[in-house]
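Dig into what follows:

_____
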Amino acid sequence: MSGIRAVPAGIGSYLPERVLTNDDLAKTVDTTHEWIVERTGIHRRHIAAQGETTADLAFHAVERALAAAGMTVDEIDMIVVATATPDQTFPSTATRIQHRIGMAHGFAFDVQAVCSGFLYALTVATQFIETGKARAAIVIGAETFSRILDWTDRATCVLFGDGAGALILKGETGTGRNTDRGVLSTELRSDGAHNASLYVDGGPSTTGIAGHLRMNGREVFKHAVRNLAEIGEAALTTAGLTPSDVRWVVPHQANARIISSTAQKIGVEMDRVIVTVQDHANTSAASIPLALDVAVRDGRIRTGDLLLLEAMGGGFTWGGAAVRW
């Protein structure tokens, strides 16, 4: 049965100019380049400049995505921003971006699911497009996690960085089969019982301040591999596909060990996995679109390739999507 598909039209990303290497961090906390690489695969991260906000990073990513799609703001109906580090408590970062790109129509809002946020935003935008409520949408993952890190805690400050990625989805009529281009399926999960494993120790209604990120690394690793494998397989099953159909896995770029362990559990070789965590660390909701943009621009991801996207974040939240590029 034919229907409207949410089809990728353009991708763009942006990383702040300032680069913070592992050796730079070793000057301020008790760590080494070798220690960080062995446990995470991370070599460097990008840090937003003073006064540079999440909306600023997202704006540059959106400009690049629009250029890649060959589209103008007038063709966009909605903006969904996934972020855990908004510019303000309110209004939404999405409305700030909407105004900055000169979009005086449609609507814009934020979603918050931490590192899974991009997949939550992708799911929301896909629903609007498939039901005909929007013709085209900009789905953004953008973060300035450097602002909520405790830079004296070597267990967390080495893991994260700042960045933004933007994906434009456009409604196109499909055949209803899994050979169509576009978002073929999404699966979302959450379990609030694990709040204490990955959280920020602040908030407007508790401490009145933003707070700092806190994490139980062992617990996160244990749940991440199991949950990511489960959600990836669920997204494929929903679309009537199997891991052997996947050309590229594009995972949340949190930790190289989590990425490789999850790929092994799913049964996908690492030469079919897009890995960029070494260059920008964990950028939370921005990491999947950042990795997508790199692989599209270097020619690895091509039109018609089947992609499996997957992520897990604080909450816990996790999600997966099968997308034919």
Remarks:
- The chain has two domains: 3-174, 182-324.
- The mean pLDDT is 97.
